[in-house]
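During the no-cost extension, the postdoctoral fellow (Dr. R.K.) reprocessed legacy sequence entries with the updated structure-token encoder. One reprocessed record is reproduced below for audit purposes.
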Amino acid sequence: MSSCESSAISPPVFEGAVVLSLLAQLVTNYSRQVTPVYYPNHGGLEIRNASFCNVTISYTHQNENDLVSVETWLPVDSWNGRFQAAGGSGLGPGRFDLSYGNMAGAIAEGYATASTDAGIANPLDPYSWVLESPGKINEVLIRHWGGDILNEMTIIAKSVIKDFYGRPPEYSYFNGCSQGGRQGFELAQKYPTAYDGIAASAPAIHWAQWAPAMFWPQMLMNTMGIYPHGCELDLLTTLAVQECDGLDGVIDGIISSPTACTFDPFAHVGTSFTCIPDRRSMQLSRDAAVIANASWSGPTDSAGKFIWYGPNRGTDLSSDMTGTGIAATSCNNGSCKGNPIPLAYQWIQLFVQKDPNFDYIALTRQGYDDIMLRSGVEYDPIVSSSNPDLREFYRAGGKMMTYHGLYDQVIPIQATEQYYDDIRNYVPNVHDFYRFYEVPGLPHCFGNGQPTTVFDTLREWVEKGTVPSSIPTVLTDVYGKRNNRILCPYPERAIYLEECGDPADATCFACAA
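Re-encoded structure tokens follow.
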């Protein structure tokens, strides 16, 4: 192992790029509490008084006037011989707080790790980088954000690792969820030899569809002039759970078989209930039933034809349970207005309309149809990451694992199901290299039921050939009881064995299609 000095690291060489700076800095006494929110596919952990070499390399591409930086962290005393790259989140490709939490988890477990900013200085403020000027996107940064620099990050990190430790990593892994999940899919599709194993969960593939689809119920509320109170949507969610909870044979306050749930919100219009936050009695309105039903059904065009999927029944629509909901409203003194997810209207304003001042509240139904169409046409080639032809990744011996929550309130799980099924057209024995787990009760990426052994299971598969079957999870039911359960590889699901008698015991479940 070399010393943590810039002179000990050779600037990597790769086509079309010029390295502008290389800085190596020894970091000591580094401590951080890392929760599974920051370290998807893993359990939470605490890193204390760690020492690592931080090597940051900045470079530009010829004739593109960009500045991309890749940050690589190298454990000084405890390297396990492996590389685990960290994915991004939301519109952030990497090198911000969530990615740094991911990297902290990696070095705590002995991995060298890396992240790229894709040339985006402030990923949390898309208004600062998406547009060069009104009407014109920053094509270079959009392509970088879409993933054309992911392999460059890999090349740089592996070069730095080899220089620092005197040998390349024995195995290379990628870890992410949401945007990080999409990045993992992008790597498997376009750079099939870059990683031995990819943990890519709740993947934001089909980005150009699901991002504007999040605005669907908000557009309907605006055009119809109806804004149901969050309490009404929460009531409908509760009623749906009550009706469909037992379809899996277990009463736990969670819909584990959403495709079998046919709950009709209109049957409950007029139901009286108490809205606890407002401390008042209410009656469920037809407006609330309309918006809830449309949210679950997903966007359709003006002719009623399917555009995209909606979230499952049981998912948080109002944002009251998770902080994020596609049909959220804000209410004051009995008057409500729409409260859209920022990423939804930012996508419409900046990426599709290319106008930071576009009035998304005034968007018409026909205008929304047009936006959904143009979004796909323009951005599918850049950020779709949904090509199911993974033959090269399979032939290279790559392995991939995914978890996705059945209660994902941002990225509907049906798209991941569709993608997995489509892979079969190219690799009929998809199970030989890719395992996908659906998680009852889990919102987007983290929360109740989040599996914490995905990455370690992937590593066993890659390095020892231990083929994954079911994996464990802990699900807290509506009564607050912790239940040990299993997750089954899609298309199988966990079936409760009634004769066993204890739904909190994982051995009382078996996998079956």
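The mean pLDDT is 97. The CA atoms of residues 175 and 314 lie 28 Å apart. The remaining legacy entries will be reprocessed before the final report is submitted.
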